[in-house]
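Dear colleague,

Following up on yesterday's call, I've attached the two folding results inline so they're easy to grep. Please treat them as preliminary; we haven't cross-checked anything against experimental data yet. The first protein's sequence and structure tokens come first.
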Amino acid sequence: MKKSVLSLIFSFLFSIPAWACLNGETKELKDGTMIYMDFAGFIPRGHSFNNPEDLEKTLGGLEKEYKRTKNLDYLSDKGYILIILKKYKEAIELYKRIESIAPGRYSTASNMGTAYELMGNNIEALKWIEKSIKINPGSHFSSEWIHANILKAKIKGGETYSSEALMQNDFGSKRNPETNLSKEELYKLRKSLFYQLNERISFVNPEDKIVAQLLFDLGNVAFLMKFKNEALGDYEKAVFYGFNDPIIKQRIASLSAITDGKEAPKDVLDESTEDIIKVGLSVFSLLISAIIIFIFRKKIFPMLK
């Protein structure tokens, strides 16, 4: 009886974090420093990094920990912060040092690619990003193929960056986006586009044609998945980044009509509704846990002594 009661209580208590985790992704370094916490949802806003003064202090601590432990994760994190601080050459030299000590680390290849791109050396960046994909193709929600396509498009040059070139897909030119992708494929593409855009927006300011195009495409994916508020947010951000094709106005207008309930699907929830349900479930689980504890308090509290 004791075990069953405690198991029931703990099952409710431990289910709460899974339902109530409404914050976005976080980045914790090897030394425990949290350098950003993202917004929830799938509208890319970029990382909100710690201020430069705090990041500079973190650099010193990471170097000390590496000297103490010889754990290369500390050096790799130091390189990541150097990139955030726009010290790209210093970061590249550090990652070259790491590569000479331990060749083939994913973080080395991935971050070297990012640093080279931010310096404007797209050819070298592509070399390292492709190497990172070979090392760990599933990293970053298996989205680095988009990063590689971006670099290929930049190397090729030209004023336009098409959906086909950047993500090997196109959603047509009609008032509403069209696709042959399945729901599962759309979901995976949504995660990949969001990850790449959230990273890129952290370092690339508007206007930027590549970011604008990918935001438009992310909006199209959200449109097709019936996440109306999310699609509108993506479209508006695409315009902010310089997307000026007239088709976006048509899709925003069409999306507004759906938001008004004219074609709203009954079997798909948008992101805001999902969040409300999660909060409701969290509150409900807390109440149930409290009731169980109250009912069995005479048996539970002696167990805790």
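Below is the second protein, in the same order (sequence, then structure):
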Amino acid sequence: MPPKNESVLNPKTTKYEFLGPIGAFQMITVLPILVCVLHLSCQFDGNPSRELIIYLSNINNVKNLFTLSNILSLFDLTAFFAYIIYLAYLIVLYYLIPGHWVEGTQLRDGTKLKYKVNGFYSMTLTIILIIIILNTKGYEPFLFIDEHFIGLITSSIIVAFFLSLYVYLDSFQEGKLLAIGGNSGNAIYDFMIGRELNPRIGSFDIKYFVELRPGLIGWTIINIAMAIKQYHELGYVTIGMFLIVIFQGWYCFDAVYNEPAVLTTMDITTDGFGWMLSFGNLTWVAFLYALQARYLALHPVHLSQFQIVSIICLQAVGYSIFRGANNEKNFFRNNPEDPKIKRMSILSISIHLVEYIESITDNHSVIVMTKQI
């Protein structure tokens, strides 16, 4: 039987990561600024923008950047509503599009949660809708993303913060299964790292939903919008931009196509859902990963035939390694005793493993922290 005692089921976190509460506070405050700065510095006159460099060379201007009026100027109400509509659209697709249900790995309390798998269909439908809009309305509607880009980033940061706050406060309700690494008792650290393991609203798993859909689908949409921005400026799309859209879109499609595999990853099985995963998926993935496409939209790069062939070959080799390794890891996690992999050599590394064993002497389950060397 699984452990019933609260102190056994949800033990206190005894070891900090990311430099503990100080590091957590720095991440919460610095990383959102970093994302905004990286995009604000990417302008037509350079990356970083020469005008921005000259402006920041004056210490008084640097101080003025953090005035309340300047901070509030980053908020764009139109962009905020657009971002909320985007998230609502994805949630509606999650519920309306048919999908099959799969079980996750066994949790510490002995249960297995079920997850609806239909992310690939959500991504496919989104691309179809983009094609329909392009054919019926033209490309102008997609210029909205570039025109309101900082506002969209700010909106994602706001949503990530309040979502993190909600799941943190909700984790104190009775009966919650907490993450081993997110129950330190320090509010800042637990808020950042994630306190509850699988926060849910009914059958809707917040962490599972946020893990792939808003970030990867958003990243793909932004890349397409940046290609459209380049077309708007140049009258054509460069090969470099085309490769970015295709290869990064391929990666995103691959992820949602293999959506069940995410259920065996550390993000789902081990990490709590807090600010780190919320901000990481809503803001970092969608907007920072799209920086390459945004740069090319403003600074087109013309590739030689040799460069094009080299990039395609590198992508093919890299993807084959990436997909092969991930398939193997997922297969091992689901079937560690399968004859196909049982004889494979294993590289032993120093990691913390959480195991459940049934005590022979007192007939109750306990948590044993072991280290594999």
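For the second protein, one point worth flagging: The first strand starts at residue 100 and ends at 103.

Best wishes,
A.L.
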